[in-house]
Amino acid sequence: MALRQLIRRHTSNPFACIHLNAFYSSFVSSNSDSDANVNAHFVEKDDFGYCDDGHDKFGKMGSEDYEDLNFFGSDNGEFNKNQSSNFDSFDKVVESDEEVEEEEEEEEEDGSGSDDSFMVLDSFDKNCVNREEVRRVEVEEDEFRHPIVREVCRLINLRSAWNPKLEGELRHLLRSIKPRQICAVLRSQADERVALNFFYWADRQWRYRHDPIVYYVMLEVLSKTKLCQGAKRVLRLMARRRIDRRPEAFSYLMVSYSRAGELRRAMQVLTMMQKAGVKPNLLICNTAIHVLVVANKLEKALRFLERMQLVGITPDVKTYNCLIKGYCDLNRIKDAIDLIEKMPCKGCSPDKVSYYTVIGFLCKDKRIKEVRDLMEKMVSDSNLIRDQVTYNTLIHMLSKHGHADEALNFLREAEERGFRVDKIGCSAIVHSFCKEGRIEEAKELVNQMFQKGCIPDVVTYTAVVNGFCRLGKLDQAKKMLQQMYKHGCKPNTVSYTALLNGLCHNGKSSEAREMINTSEEEWWTPNSITYSVVVHGLRREGKLSEACDVTREMVNKGFFPNPVEINSLLQSLCREGKTDEAKKFLEECLNKGCAVNVVNFTTVIHGLCQKDDLTDALSLLDDMYLSNKHPDVVTYTAVIDALGKKGRIEEATKLTLKMLKKGLVPTPVTYRAVIHRYCKMGRVEDLLKLLEKMLFKQKCRTAYNQVIEKLCSFGYLEEADKLLDRVLSRGLEADGSTCLVLMECYLSKGFPLLAYKVACRMFNHNLVPDLKLCEKVSKRLIFEGKSEEADTLMLRQFACFSSDFAVYPLNAPLIDNPLRLPVDWNLKGTWNGWQSVGGNQLYGYSALPVDASLALAT
């Protein structure tokens, strides 16, 4: 530990890293001659050079940042057998205490509620060139096909079966791989988390250090995901390695935060950039406006634009296009059009994207006249030619939103103007017709495509096949597949998947499964979607064993079902009472490396509890801990209820306390389960102690109501009455319904006097009993000869409706000789009508002001 602190102290010293700074000094210069039309989130191709000198000397530097992850082997290449070899465990980064404190301080800052995050614009250098300075790391196609890249990707894909030999091979390849080939490996990964794990692993290897371009590519990959914490750690790692961090590096992090829905932290990146001494440019400003627009914070985006202009950053067409989209997202189409008209006055002419953005939203609402007007403005005001791209865009937008007729009209118009709409546009219209069930019109359009020399492709035919399947015309769908061969168009996996989906929805899942088995003969390869379609079809038909078999085939072919698909099958098995098969299937999925989550475990545990198989349920709960799948409150509730049902109340209590100790918040279902089981056994004191601990985590206003109700339902009236006294005396969470439950129970058991006493306690605590319930209690009291209590109950009930009232003899004038009875209760309410109280007649009570009166027969 002391050695680690010594190393950390030296590496934090700037003089200890002077050689590293010198090594990377050749990479810090920025190229200001980049093309402004390039994508705003990339690094220039030739901005960095590749050099292997210096990596050996400083390869070990910074290894303390991942000290807990270095379990593949020691620094001399030997494998540590006492440590795990799971490649997927690289997503955890060890951070120093100072970094954790820094991150906590950043989280405490709130940059979304004010314009404090705009202060970074004040550091803008007005003398610099006002452009985005976009640079992209270009990876040639040959790099992706390079043998070393393909071999590295193959070894990464074998991570579930990792062993020292495979690790040694990968480490050996890492010594000779070039930076752009590393970039190709990162971009080749279908799962960005795997790419990030490989990035971490490579950075920890002896005599290797990532080239600066690798950091930017890793940030670019992460910006397309919600892995914002991973992007932030990569950005922090760049600071440790003394890598020049340009605005686009922070831009990637902002976009990642935005995808994760964390607007506040996305805007805090601006403050982070300011602290790092990085000056803003147009790129980071456009990114900030984009983030605000995506988060529906258009007004704040407009304020940011004003602040940009004040400090001298001139917005470009991308800036205004973001704002135009923000107006359209809020259905403020008129404001979007006004902004387009004002753009030339601001020194920035709109482009076709500006118009296409508004046209897309108009197409969605089928506002065709406004679309045509905007197209005319595009030509007359902005000198933008209405070309084939314009018509293709219109056709696709209208077809996407189900307006096939309007799209077809624009297709005809484009042909009249001499433009030839490609087969992609025609296929879009065909697909729209098929979705609406207009299959004959779709077939007619396909025939017209042949006549015009526009040969339909596999996409067009697949749309028609899907249309036939939607209508249940499976024979015609099969014939269409045969016709595809005749016209020289080979059906692909999507075409067959569409047919299989139709078969499954029409109760022919077994035939669909047979088609998968004969796929090799037909020269097509099923994919994960194909298998999922068949599995769902078999599950819907109740053929669960066959569905499990297809899932196993799917996994053996390298296609892993997602947790939702796994859970659907597990639920069906448990619903049919096949919990043993469900448990076996879950274990197989877990052993095969499928993405099993806590919901899948909970489904099987709940099924086992429903069958009273607590032994297997508790065993599976232990397996969750071993698999690092932490049970949630739903899991615990299912087991707690099952234990209580079996009378194993002590075990249920221990499990409840364990749940609370883990910080899980009880749900209303948890309260109901615990209260029901404890009350059934009459364990009131134990229940109250447990409730106090549960209520400490999450307040439940009806908790004591439920307890009293359950005690009454199980016949524990004395315990319920004592609990009510405790609730009212201690001022615990309770309302009138708590007492009413006990009153009704006393009344149903034939104890109206006890019900009357409960009502009196309610009056004393400013709680108003239900009027109809009081009437029932009063009648029962009179029946048992307790007229005095009955009259008192009704008078106190009516007294709650006014601050004072008067009692008159039956025939006395309303204003003569009133006997006023002052009342202390000030609850509001009125009651009108006739009512009898015992042998007396309540006559003409009405909601008068201060002189509200009661005429009572004596």
Automatic annotation (TrEMBL):
Keywords: Repeat. InterPro entries: PPR_rpt, TPR-like_helical_dom_sf. Pfam families: PPR, PPR_1, PPR_2, PPR_3. Residues 96-113 have a biased composition (Acidic residues). PPR repeats lie at residues 246-280, 281-315, 316-350, 387-421, 422-456, 457-491, 492-526, 527-561, 562-596, 597-631, 632-666, 667-697, 700-734. SUPFAM superfamilies: HCP-like (SSF81901). Residues 82-117 are annotated as: Disordered. It comes from the Eukaryota. The keyword DNA-binding does not apply. PANTHER family: OS03G0856100 PROTEIN, PENTACOTRIPEPTIDE-REPEAT REGION OF PRORP DOMAIN-CONTAINING PROTEIN. Belongs to the PPR family. P subfamily. This is Pentacotripeptide-repeat region of PRORP domain-containing protein.
